[in-house]
Specification:
Layout (H helix, E strand, L loop, with lengths): L26 E3 L7 E3 L3 E5 L2 H11 L3 E5 L14 H9 L2 E4 L5 H9 L4 E4 L28 H10 L18 H18 L4 H25 L7 E4 L5 H6 L3 E4 L11 H14 L3 E4 L6 H10 L2 E4 L15 H16 L3
Parallel strand pairs: 3-4, 3-5, 5-6, 7-8, 7-9, 9-10
Antiparallel strand pairs: 1-2
């Protein structure tokens, strides 16, 4: 895999399908960001966070009213469901979420009476990104010593966000191919839940999948020939992207964007950066850049944004998923040294 020398806390993602499809109702939210329960004449969808809301909007088109549980600028991992949002979930026609990323949303949706429950984690394959440390080689063949160094790394990991057993990485939307697989599954769920508009859902899904295919091709071409294949991030969100395009992500922290790195990890990254020709430490828009700047200063590297596209704000380098992903590609090309 592509996140080296780091054991990442597990994320519990069940393999069981969660398409609880039922009869269509017109009762749901008003589609506002705040998400008040009410009645609309559209197919009402409550999405857990931006990547799910974007799919619903692109596939549903004019036939859907989409509300996100995660507000713009809010870190998705920190979401806590309010009483108002729980009431909204009782009224909505469909709930679209990614089990394992936001435990509060998982629990609320599971307990809700939402007529259609779509778990994106069941619509593609999830993988583990990272390796054990402490006295053995990881999948890249790097030996890890026992003792103080390993203990410090484990100590740093205790600050990570524990998503449960399994170690599955939920950041599937950052791989356009996997995101397209999820889109296909969401489209089929919409067709079944709202058959009156099935033809439009199918057409919109096909258009979205084609556009994601083009994005994949753009990334493949744009990252084909670079001076280095290694990039460093504060948040281990880009494992799928790295694997798709033959890159190696070195994460300062684990899957939690707010986890604090150990001193040993910071020193190791400085050595890795020098050995692999890394020029840039990437941080993201929704989390403080303090850690990235500290590591970059110690290693005499630059900093830049690599956006995990967990939400769109005024600071985002684009107005939607595709624009931000294209900005990510440009940032990677500059950091990796495109030839």
């Amino acid at each position: 895999m592509n996140v080296r020398r780091r054991r990442i806390s597990g994320i519990a993602v069940t393999a069981a399908a969660a398409l609880g499809l039922g009869t269509l109702s017109a009762c749901s939210s008003d589609g506002s960001a705040a998400g008040k329960p009410g009645n609309t004449d559209k197919f009402d969808v409550v999405a857990s966070f931006y990547p799910m809301a974007f799919l619903a909007e692109q596939i549903g088109g004019d036939h859907v009213s989409v509300t996100s549980l995660t507000q713009p600028g809010q870190e998705p991992h920190d979401l806590e469901i309010s009483a108002k949002q729980r009431a909204q979930l009782e009224e909505t026609d469909a709930a679209l979420f990614l089990k394992g990323l936001q435990p509060s949303a998982d629990e609320a949706i599971a307990q809700s009476g939402a007529k259609t429950k779509i778990d994106a984690a069941t619509l593609t394959s999830l993988e583990e990104h990272g390796a054990e440390v402490g006295g053995h080689a990881d999948e890249h063949g790097h030996e890890h010593a026992e003792g103080e160094h390993a203990e410090e790394e484990h100590a740093g990991e205790e600050h990570g966000h524990d998503h449960g057993e399994g170690g599955k990485d939920p950041h599937i939307w950052l791989d356009p191919v996997k995101y397209a697989e999820v889109a296909e599954g969401v489209g089929k769920a919409f067709e079944k839940a709202d058959p009156d508009h099935a033809a439009d859902y199918k057409k919109n899904t096909e258009a979205l999948v084609a556009k994601l295919g083009d994005l994949n091709t753009t990334f493949e071409t744009g990252l084909k020939d670079t001076k280095t294949r290694t990039f460093v991030t504060t948040h281990a969100a880009f494992g799928y992207l790295a694997e798709r395009y033959g890159l190696t992500e070195e994460a300062i922290s684990g899957l939690s964007p707010e986890a604090e790195p150990s001193a040993a990890r910071v020193k190791e990254l400085a050595r890795t950066a020098q050995a692999d020709g890394v020029s840039t430490i990437f941080y993201e828009t929704l989390v403080s850049d303090e850690t990235a700047k500290t590591v970059a200063r110690d290693a005499r590297l630059k900093t830049d944004v690599l956006d995990p596209v967990e939400g769109i704000t005024d600071k985002s380098r684009g107005d939607d998923y595709f624009q931000v992903m294209e900005a990510n590609l440009k940032a990677l090309q500059a950091a990796l040294g495109t030839k």
